[in-house]
Amino acid sequence: MTRNFQRYLWPFLSLKESKKCNFSAAPNDQSSASKEEENGEYVKPFTPEKAKEIIMSLQQPAVFCNMVFDWPAQHWTAEHLSKVLNGKQIRFRMGMKSTDTVPQFETSCSYVEATLEEFLTWNCDHSSTSGPFIDYDYSKFWAYADYKYVVSLFEDKTDIFQDVIWSDFGFRGRNGRESTLWIGSLGAHTPCHLDSYGCNLVFQVQGRKRWHLFPPEDTPFLYPTRIPYEESSVFSKVNVVNPDVKRFPRFQEARRHVVTLSPGQVLFVPRHWWHYVESVDPVTVSINSWIELAELELEHMPRQSPWTPLPLPVPVTCAVAPTDAASPKEEDHQARVEEAIARMLVCALKTAEDPHSTRAWLNPTEVEETSHEVNCRYLNRAVSAFFDHYRTSKTEIQALRTNGEHMKKEEFNMHNNLMEVEQTDSQNLTSGTVGEQAACPFGPDLVPVLPSSEDPPSETGGMFKNDGKDFVGKAGEHFDKLHCTKKQRMMSGRENEIVEQVASNSTMAPSQTFISTDDLLDCLVNPQVTKIVAQLLIQGRSL
């Protein structure tokens, strides 16, 4: 997100069955979640190296437990931060608690400048007779101090950066300086979106948050849009907690994964997973860090040509990246080129439509200049960075010159191989082989987020009523769905998906023949399109 943030197989992991992860723990209380004890001191279930190995391999969301019990940041409650900030004003996004079928994007929210103390008073008293929240009835509104960079918020208290210890997950030197803070009231949420770069680690400090996640291959069912525009964020047109299934019928095919994150737990969100996040307690505090994969030295991963198609996750209990996949590191370099293309198109067309106002289409988080000159420099830097990454590999540059037919053949063969793997793994799952289970790191201290066992909400169903206990979905449903859709994953099915999406959109409102700028943009900056454009652009520059 602008937030400008800055996988494959792992060795078998041994897990002690005696340990438990408590998903209904009270705030900041991990006492009921047992931790391995050594010489009178608690020992974390994963070493930093092992944690990083898991993060760089795993392709499905999972929750780490018992990894942050000694972090000073576990005490970063809203009350504590209010004292630390000592009257400093921060910006709160104000949204409506009522649930509409239209997503509540940041461009449609209002904003107030207030202290945490004023926020807590309004949140506790459920009213405000004075101050910045006076115009906001607590019963109707929520408040969200989101995307607050710790480095900016505590610029005069740099010692506090050490309270956040991402190095425990293998990312040396990463702490609060590379983190973002989120403080919200009941109902506060982030619209469904995916992040263009990297992966995400989220530490829940206070209160609970419910995450609705969807895999990357479900992107056509989420109806992606770049309006409002935010650098490196692709939004969904669907309000996933109250979808308009008449307008977006294919959303019913999406595989929703739901998890309620409690204090002391860390959620891993893999690259390109869609997510909608909502606060389900009166006050919630979270700390996250976006791990930009292009920055990491993944020496254990083979370097591949960026032309290598992104394969689909293998439907096994541990979804890990196939060994012939392009590395996430490489994908992030190309993603930057794709993002620059999207930025140029959105800014050019929307500015031409209305040269005097960006409020309706540019997210408030975007503070950088959006002129064509600036965007051209942005694109050139992205392309240069891509080639800098490959400058030492003549073999890989040569791969960029491969003709289209050879690319299609490779892609077709890869998908055939993947389908064979799917069938083999399906048989293993059915027979319950010991080998498959042994290869998984999942256990009491690392819990996978699987498809929800609940039906998706209906058009009038409103918010989910999940209590957080239904943490893991039914495996049978998960694998059945994957097998049902695998034929669509063949190379020849990609064009069909695009056609089907266009057809479904056009049949919803046959009388609406007017094509708006946004309609055109939704096609031009569709992730599938920008990926092709980026590849063609890179190929042309390499000749």
Q: How would the blueprint of this fold be written?
A:
Blueprint lengths: L35 E3 L2 E3 L4 H10 L4 E3 L13 H8 L4 E7 L13 E5 L1 H10 L15 E9 H4 L26 E6 L3 E7 L3 E8 L2 E6 L9 E7 L2 E4 L20 E5 L4 E4 L4 E6 L3 E9 L36 H26 L18 H19 L3 H6 L4 H28 L2 H5 L7 E3 L26 H11 L7 H16 L8 H8 L2 H16 L1
Antiparallel strand pairs: 1-2, 3-14, 3-17, 4-5, 4-6, 6-7, 7-16, 8-12, 8-15, 9-14, 9-16, 10-13, 10-15, 11-12
Helix pairs in contact: 5-6, 5-12, 5-13
Description:
It is a single chain. The protein is an alpha+beta fold and 543 residues long. It has helices at 48-57, 78-85, 116-125, 150-153, 328-353, 372-390, 394-399, 404-431, 434-438, 475-485, 493-508, 517-524, 527-542; strands at residues 36-38, 41-43, 62-64, 90-96, 110-114, 141-149, 180-185, 189-195, 199-206, 209-214, 224-230, 233-236, 257-261, 266-269, 274-279, 283-291, 446-448. The strands form 3 sheets. A 9-stranded antiparallel sheet has the order 5-4-6-7-16-9-14-3-17. A 6-stranded antiparallel sheet has the order 11-12-8-15-10-13. The longest helix is centred in the C-terminal third of the chain and has 28 residues, at 404-431. It starts with 35 loop residues before the first strand and ends with a helix.
Short key terms for the protein model shown above:
13 helices, disordered N terminus, 543 residues, globular, nine-stranded antiparallel beta sheet, alpha+beta, six-stranded antiparallel beta sheet
